[in-house]
Amino acid sequence: MVEKNITSSDKYKSIILVFLMIIGLGIIYLFQGGNYFLDLDNKERVRPGLPAPNFTLSGLDGEVVNLTDYKGKVVFLNIWATWCPPCREEMPSMQKLYNELKGEDFEILAVSIDTLGAKAVAPFMNKFNLTFPALLDTKGSIQGIYGTTGIPESYIIDREGIVVEKVIGAKDWSSPEVIDMMQNLIQKPLSDK
Predict the structure, then answer these.
(1) Does the model's pTM come out above 0.70?
(2) pLDDT tens, residue by residue, 9-41
């Protein structure tokens, strides 16, 4: 059996080697997109309790819409596309919700990220008899503003402009629980700010 005499120089070399391996792995991690903690431009993601970021988009009717135009109303913001199966699945329930709350301080803003814009959205809205406002975002800017991870994503925004709920994926928006929640938000008085 051969005994090896480990010197302090060998210990330092081992420590330096481990340190360099950790740095190398860190660099690989950063180059693969895992640089969240170093992203100085990273905005806080939209979540309940934060103000809903404003945006400006054109509707199917050609009218320019700003989210701030709806302050004082409960806004159901839905980000979707015509080619998205879960989006198509939830659209009829959104229409039922819209019919139920039409005329109250409530609005649906359905932002389509279809690159073909009105060419894709108008026939879709007609085919499914959808009458709530559809906004066109052919460049997908809303996804950057709201930090969405997929579609559909929906945001319930109260009359003060604060996000109350964020829902990822399809949902039955015409359920009694959802309608009650929306009516409670509509009836909640505005603050005296």
Answers:
(1) yes
(2) 777 787 887 777 787 776 765 555 443 344 434
CA gyration radius, the chain: 25
In a domain, 182, yes or no: yes
Q: Are 48 and 165 a contacting pair, CB within 8 Å? A: yes
Residues 120 and 32 in one domain: no
Q: Are 46 and 53 in contact (CB under 8 A)?
A: yes
Residue appearing with tokens 């159901």 = 76
Task: Give me the number of domains the chain comprises.
Answer: 2
| Alpha carbon distance 53, 161 (integer Å) | 9
Same domain, 106 and 33: no
Q: For residues 20 and 109, state if they share a domain.
A: no
* Domain encompassing residue 13: 8-38
- Burial classification of residue 138, based on how many CB atoms lie within 10 Å of its CB (0-12 exposed, 13-18 middle, 19 or more buried): middle
